[in-house]
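Action item from last meeting closed. Structure (249 res):
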C-alpha cells in the first residue's frame, strides 16, 4: 500500500499531497515567498490527516525544477531535512514533466509542450509524448529542458501547450497551439511516482539537487542563512512528526 508525501514550491503556487493507500490528502495554495513558512506546517497537517508519520513513508517526492531558484532550494532543503531525519528515500520529479502530466490528466492532452515562466522574458520548456511511452509507462521526454524566449518556442502541429506562461507572454507564445493552464502539482507527481520508482529514480538525501537550467553563480548570504534555517526546521519537524502520534483519519 503506497505511502507517499509530495510537494512542489517551484512556482508562485504551493502544492502538497499525501497518499496513504487509496486515500489522498492534498493542498494547493499561495506559494512564492510564503512557501518557506507554510510548507512544513502543511506537511505535518496532511500527514496527521492521513494517519501517517514521516517514518511510515515509502518515499518523499519533490519538484526538483526547473523553476524559481528560491522555490527549488526550499523544496530541496525541506526534502533533504525530512529524509535525513526519517531515513526515507527521495524521489525528485522534473517540474515540466509534472506540468505535462497535469495537462494529460485534466485535459486529455497526449502530446504536450510544457512551459513555465522563467521571468526575465524567458521560458523553461520541454516536450512530452504520452503516446510514445517507454517500457515503464513514462512519456517520451524528447529534448532536455530548455531556457528560451517566447518567440523561440516551437510547438509541433497537433501538440498542446501547457503551463503558466500565457498571461505573461500572450500571443508571443505559439499563438496557433491549443493551450492549457497547468501547474506542477503534488498530485501530478504522485501519479508519476509509481513509474519513476519502478525506474529506480530515488536518491539518498545527500544527492537530492535542484535542476536549475538557468545558471546562477552563488547564493546570497541571506539565501544561505534561510536555507540553513529551513534544513534545521525540517530536521526538527521530522523528529516532531515521528514522536507525536498522528491523528487518525
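Sequence:
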Amino acid at each position: 500500500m503506497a505511502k507517499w508525501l509530495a510537494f512542489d514550491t517551484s512556482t508562485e503556487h504551493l502544492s502538497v499531497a499525501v497518499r496513504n493507500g487509496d486515500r489522498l490528502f492534498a493542498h494547493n495554495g499561495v506559494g512564492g515567498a510564503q512557501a518557506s513558512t507554510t510548507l512544513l506546517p502543511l506537511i505535518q497537517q496532511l500527514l496527521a490527516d492521513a494517519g501517517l508519520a514521516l517514518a511510515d513513508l515509502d518515499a518523499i517526492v519533490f519538484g526538483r525544477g526547473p523553476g524559481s531558484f528560491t522555490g527549488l532550494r526550499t523544496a530541496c532543503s525541506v526534502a533533504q531535512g525530512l529524509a535525513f531525519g526519517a531515513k526515507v528515500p527521495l524521489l525528485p520529479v522534473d517540474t515540466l514533466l509534472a506540468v505535462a502530466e497535469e495537462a494529460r490528466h485534466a485535459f486529455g492532452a497526449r502530446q504536450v509542450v510544457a512551459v513555465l515562466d522563467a521571468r526575465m522574458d524567458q521560458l523553461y520548456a520541454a516536450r512530452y509524448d504520452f503516446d510514445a511511452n517507454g517500457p515503464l509507462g513514462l512519456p517520451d521526454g524528447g529534448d532536455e529542458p530548455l531556457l528560451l524566449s517566447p518567440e523561440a518556442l516551437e510547438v509541433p502541429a497537433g501538440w498542446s501547450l501547457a503551463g503558466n506562461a500565457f498571461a505573461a507572454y500572450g500571443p508571443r507564445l505559439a499563438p496557433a497551439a491549443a493551450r492549457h493552464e497547468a501547474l506542477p502539482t503534488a498530485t501530478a507527481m504522485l501519479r508519476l511516482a509509481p513509474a519513476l520508482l519502478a525506474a529506480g529514480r530515488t536518491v539518498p538525501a545527500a544527492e537530492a539537487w535542484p535542476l536549475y537550467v538557468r545558471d546562477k553563480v552563488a547564493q546570497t548570504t541571506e539565501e544561505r542563512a534561510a536555507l540553513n534555517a529551513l534544513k534545521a526546521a525540517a530536521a526538527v519537524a521530522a523528529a516532531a512528526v515521528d514522536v507525536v502520534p498522528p491523528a487518525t483519519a
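Note appended to the action item: Residues 221-243 form the longest helix (23 residues).
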